[in-house]
Amino acid sequence: MPITVKDLCFSYQKGTPFEKKVLHNISLTIDDGEFVGIIGPTQSGKTTLAQHFNALLMPHGGSVTVNGYLTSDPQADLVDLRLKVGYVFQNPDYQLFAQTVGEDIAFGPQNQKLNKEEIKERVAAVMAQVGLDYDTFNQRDIYALSGGQKRRAAIAGVLACKPEILILDDVTAGLDPRGREEIMTVIRDLHQKQKITIIFISNSMDEAAELAERVIVIDQGRIFLDGAVREIFKQSAQLRSIGLEIPEVISVIEMLQKRGCVLPTIPLNLAEAIDCIATAYREREENR
Length: 288
What we know:
Elements: E1 3-12, E2 20-30, E3 35-39, H1 46-50, E4 61-66, E5 69-70, H2 78-84, E6 85-88, H3 101-111, H4 116-129, H5 134-137, H6 147-159, E7 165-169, H7 177-194, E8 197-201, H8 205-211, E9 214-219, E10 222-228, H9 229-234, H10 236-241, H11 248-258, H12 270-286
Parallel strand pairs: 3-8, 3-9, 6-7, 7-8
Antiparallel strand pairs: 1-2, 1-4, 4-5, 9-10
Helix pairs in contact: 3-4, 3-6, 4-6, 6-7
């Protein structure tokens, strides 16, 4: 279910004295099964871009095609498109609306005209996927959930519609370290086990480095960099030039390199860093 964007332009309050152009001639393709991180400074256009992928926003110039649907085509079946391209917002309170967790997750399958048994099976399955025990949480009041549990319930509600693409908009923001790691584990499993195409918008360079396979950097409504995650984070000077911090583990590695430590590759997480440093140390000892 590829996404193809050609020369996309978009403005808020278009046609008014307050018009603000946010996206400028963006072109890109996202293929089936990719895990793409979209990063950039605050108000760079990340969310605005992603909301074009399931027609929450429509282009003011250029085009967006998703699975053969030209989103701006008046004949396009946008209901079907939005079932296939799920969007999880940063604030789960914008997405959760039913009284209980089970009712909220069941809303999508009910609109797909499934029978009661199918709905129950699907709700239980997606709750298990996101780490919410069915017996414990099915009748739990939405507003009795923690922040991390609300995020997982919101993800489950989208997964219940069986999307082929999942867009996650800064879904770990504001969580404590444990809640953040729980959500990141859910996201990893969805991609690795379910093979869902994931588009992950984040202000955390550490999370983007750890989760994504490809990174698109947006700055001032334009694509600044686009490539494999390791290649993008090698370009630390360019990232810093637009106000982005590089992942903490890479900052440490850069300090070691300045002191003469030669590493075989650029690590993206703590486990890789430990392995790289250990390999460099062994090689140094062997060459003495």
